[in-house]
Amino acid sequence: KTLDTEIKNLSKNVTSIQPAINEINRLLKSYGFLNFEIVPTAEEGFYQIQREDGTIAETTLSEGEITFITFLYYLQLAKGGISEDVVNEERVLVIDDPISSLDSNVLFVVSTLIKELIKNVKAEVGNVKQVILLTHNVYFHKEVSFIDGRTKICNKTNFWILRKNNKATTLQNFLMDNPIHSSY
Questions:
Q1: What is the biggest distance separating any 2 CA atoms in the chain, rounded to whole angstroms?
Q2: How are beta strands 128-134 and 91-96 bridged, if at all?
């Protein structure tokens, strides 16, 4: 009972939006996105996207910027939670083609962030226990599934191909053998 109370008290810091704002802004800056940032609103518990000149960017974000900010928020939510009761729960993340509307630079950033997430799952660090990544982009698949150039198989990774034919979807399991060898 004492430990549960202590966990809930410590989790209050994790469920605050400020750590998420700080981390998203750190990631934006570290990857060269300097034309906007996340700032808290006057109303507690909310934030907004602000341009360099101080204007609110709600109507001026490109589709790619919206996709990227949404992805960064999703990663932060996966690390914490929207309430203190769920902060420490184990999770399975499903990431469905997070790179639509993104240019090749942002595609590389997203693949790097996902590879870091997968690395933590494999090392059993954090509360994310499994990542299911869906994509139809072969370049993105190659980027995110690249291990280290030497290692070809990982016993904690499995590959599937889903095919849709005549309104029916089939699923082919390739186990640990990556079926994608080139983009041709």
A1: 59
A2: parallel
CB 107 within 8 A of CB 139: yes
* 77-98: pLDDT as tens digits: 888 766 666 667 889 999 998 8
Phi, psi of 26 (to 5 degrees): -60, -45
Residue 59: closest CA among 75, 40, 36, 39: 36
Other CB atoms within a 10 A radius of the CB of residue 79 amount to: 18
Q: Which of 135, 137, 156, 138 is nearest to 147 (CA)?
A: 156
Report residue 112 as tokens. Answer: 């790097």
- Quick one: CA dihedral 27, 40, 46, 41, positive or negative? negative
Sign of CA dihedral 139, 145, 148, 152: negative
- CA–CA separation, 163 and 158 (whole Å): 17
The reported pTM is 0.78
